[in-house]
From TrEMBL:
InterPro entries: CFP-6_PH (IPR019692). Pfam families: bPH_6. Keywords: Membrane, Transmembrane, Transmembrane helix. Residues 142-208 are annotated as: Disordered. This is Low molecular weight protein antigen 6 PH domain-containing protein. Residues 69-139 form the Low molecular weight protein antigen 6 PH domain. Residues 196-208 have a biased composition (Polar residues).
Length: 208
């Protein structure tokens, strides 16, 4: 018996690992404050060393803030996937399937160009149940949008009397069958056509 179909969320909706984000930002902010206070309280440090301490603390906070950046935002026209250093906009027609298998660190999107794209905004690291719910919701959205978009010109394929018609970029482009390849005449001895100057005799010998 298949699992019940999850209720579609109201668009726009954003999926992100909330608990992971809170932990990363809290640790980064706490480390920044602690290192900054220590750098200011140590009297034996010169101004250059204090600046170095504070810079290292700010760099550490920036790295953790970057790790907390991933999210997946879905709206009526498509999905925006924000990973650590890259952002990509996908139309619903480009998403074939949303996968979150056992042992996967995050969701993977199977795309229409044959590639698979990671979506770090849904990851079961610290909140497995939330990640599973988010993955199911995103999958339901992708399937519902694909179902409503099956009748669009980009997805239809029809046949006409003159050949197959495919759609590319919303325009009809007829694909006509290839013309037949002419057959070459059979060659006889010494490169002559079999029908010219060669007559088989009754005993199988060739008579000219």
């Amino acid at each position: 018996m298949s699992a019940p179909r999850p209720e579609l969320p109201t668009l726009p909706v954003t999926f992100r690992p909330t608990l992971t984000r809170v932990v990363l930002l809290s640790v980064g902010l706490a480390m920044f404050l602690v290192i900054t206070v220590i750098a200011l309280m140590l009297e034996r440090l010169n101004p250059g060393e204090r600046v170095t301490f504070i810079f290292v603390a700010a760099l550490f906070l920036g790295v953790l803030a970057l790790l907390s950046r991933p999210r997946v935002t879905a709206d009526d026209t498509g999905v925006t996937v924000v990973n650590i250093t890259r952002t990509r906009r996908l139309a619903w027609e480009e998403i074939l399937r949303v996968n979150l298998r056992s042992g996967d660190p995050w969701v993977f999107l199977d795309l229409s160009d044959g590639t698979s794209m990671p979506a770090l905004g849904i990851q079961p690291g610290m909140a497995k149940e939330q990640a599973i719910r988010d993955a199911r919701s995103l999958r339901a959205l992708a399937e519902s949008r694909s179902a409503t978009g099956d009748d669009t010109p980009d997805r239809r394929s029809t046949r006409a009397a003159h050949g197959r018609v495919v759609y590319s970029g919303g325009r009809r482009r007829p694909v006509r069958p290839a013309p037949p390849v002419p057959r070459l005449p059979t060659r006889g001895p010494r490169g002559l056509p079999a029908t010219q100057g060669v007559t088989p005799s009754s005993n199988g010998r060739i008579v000219r």
